[in-house]
Amino acid sequence: MTKNVKMGSNAEATQINRRPQRFFGRLSAEIYYVREGQVNEYALHFTVPVPADVEEISFTWQSLAKKHLPYRINIVSPDLIALPKPSMNISWQGEIPEHIETFAIGLRCSGRESAEVDVTITVEVTLDQLTGNATELVFRRKKICLMRIDDQLRVKLADNSLSRDLFPSDYYCLGDSENRPIKWLALESIQFKQFNEASDTWAFGVLMWELCTLARQPYAEVDPFEMEHYLRDGYRLSQPINCPDELFAIMAYCWTMLPMERPSFEKLQICLQDFYAQLTRYV
User: Fold this and answer.
1) Which distant-in-sequence residues (6+ apart) come within 8 Å of 227 by Cβ?
2) Which of 23, 109, 188, 219 could potentially form a cystine with 194 if both were Cys, beta carbons 3.0 to 4.6 Å apart?
3) What is the mean pLDDT of residues 237-250?
4) pTM of the predicted model, to two decimals?
């Protein structure tokens, strides 16, 4: 096996103290699990994170033997609710190609659950069909999935920590070694790291503003380090063009300074239902 098969996968390679060390953060470069005829055991022992926005991972392989090498691929994913059975664009069993080829494994989340799913990909290669001598390469992945819908097909807001991989540019570190989506946070969340239903209401108001602006960046003109002072001085997002006054009033209701003055989600539902009824009254 070590002399007959070459497999590569997307990953990052960095030199430290002149010894090659492998890092698998953003899956942005090429690394070979079998290099110069030897299995890179260091690489095989890593569990590689797959960000939420990556729905497909690829492997490049080639048979270096002068005979047919049958293979069998098995993929185990224990959480079928968050991550349905992975797909593959080649047969689950066959023969390793003699020329360099790339195959892809689909890791598409269902959106019904937020989870970090351990995915194990096993490639079994038969080296000698007469004796049945075979060997295995095991590749481990951790697929990050975000809840998007529930059982009633209702859209869910993403978990802040999980969406960090999906929208890294929206997260900022304010000198405390913790990345947070500052421009979606309530004032007390920025100041005191307080998170509760009232702070969720604030974030929901920002979401409504994003929907009305067709996904514009909130507070695009404000430096993240100035957000606390900006909000404390009473500044808020401006009313989007073509946004009805009644709808913007609901948004502003979510951004009141005192948490106890913000509406509950039950109250928001009533307000939005009343607004919808007014819109459809004359249709």
Assistant:
1) 182, 183, 185, 190, 219
2) 188
3) 94
4) 0.50
